[in-house]
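Field log, afternoon session.

UNIT: design team B
ACTIVITY: writing a sequence onto a fixed backbone
BACKBONE:
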């Protein structure tokens, strides 16, 4: 029995190692291509780079203006994230805690979900007409507002269950102690749903950072390009075979999301797993 258990444990460990290697190999290959000289990418490409170089990263910032794209993406992403969280958290709390007349609570929640389920391209024409009349096209503002439109329904739908799971007795006892609505929300409710906020903030951050469709439609100049669009423009007829340049851009594009996950991983694990087991 011990031998069988040991063999089973070794088999599971080997299986996990194989799956881990398969999962991490694309990331390794992306990094390896970004630091590999261009001469090594012609003909047979070895698994391990024979020499290392930073020329692709230097060209990316010097010749391609990738730094401006990073600034644009950071402004669009964090701006939309702050607005989306402010609106979504408040709306989710109101829907979860307040009573609605004529049974409108459930239809309202499904209507919110419908906005998130529809493909983003379905909103491009009405948004384009609206932004054109306002006169804000060819700026970063339309992209930020479009990301808010997509992320707010996700935040509302995700956080409603967190607010509903909170015992109302906790809030009632705080009111008895003299807490105002704002104090109750800020000091009692928000810390209790922090894992859910971290999880949905991560999902919203990923969408806004990787947003491509709205950027292509609403911006027209290179000074307003975000990271996904800047990466797409690297694949031109002149630089189609410059895989190192594209790989360097890919490495830089995943750094912000990786850092976000590292710093928020404890909240993310508890937030994404919350509600998985019901008593």
């Amino acid at each position: 029995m011990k031998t069988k258990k040991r063999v089973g444990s070794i088999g599971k460990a080997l299986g996990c190692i194989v799956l881990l290697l398969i999962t991490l190999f694309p990331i390794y290959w992306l990094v390896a291509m970004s630091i590999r000289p261009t001469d090594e990418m012609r003909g047979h490409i070895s698994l391990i780079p024979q020499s290392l170089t930073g020329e692709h990263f230097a060209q990316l910032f010097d010749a391609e203006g990738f730094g401006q794209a990073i600034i644009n993406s950071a402004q669009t992403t964090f701006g939309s994230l702050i607005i989306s969280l402010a609106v979504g958290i408040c709306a989710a709390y109101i829907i979860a805690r307040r009573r609605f007349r004529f049974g409108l609570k459930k239809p309202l929640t499904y209507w919110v979900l419908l906005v998130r389920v529809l493909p983003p391209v379905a909103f491009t024409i009405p948004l384009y007409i609206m932004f054109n009349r306002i006169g804000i096209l060819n700026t970063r503002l339309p992209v930020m507002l479009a990301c808010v439109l997509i992320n707010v329904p996700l935040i509302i739908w995700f956080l409603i269950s967190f607010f509903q799971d909170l015992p109302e007795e906790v809030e009632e006892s705080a009111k008895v102690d003299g807490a105002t609505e704002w104090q109750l929300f800020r000091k009692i409710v928000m810390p209790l749903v922090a894992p859910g906020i971290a999880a949905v903030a991560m999902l919203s951050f990923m969408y806004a950072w990787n947003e491509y469709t709205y950027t292509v439609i609403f911006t027209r100049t290179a000074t307003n390009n975000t990271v996904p669009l800047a990466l797409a423009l690297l694949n031109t007829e002149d630089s189609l075979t410059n895989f190192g340049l594209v790989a360097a851009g890919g490495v830089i594009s995943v750094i912000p999301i990786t850092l976000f996950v590292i710093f928020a991983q404890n909240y993310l694990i508890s937030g994404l797993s919350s509600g998985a087991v019901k008593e």
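LOG NOTE: Residues 65-273 form a domain with the MetI-like fold fold (CATH 1.10.3720.10).
NEXT ACTIVITY: expression trials, pending approval
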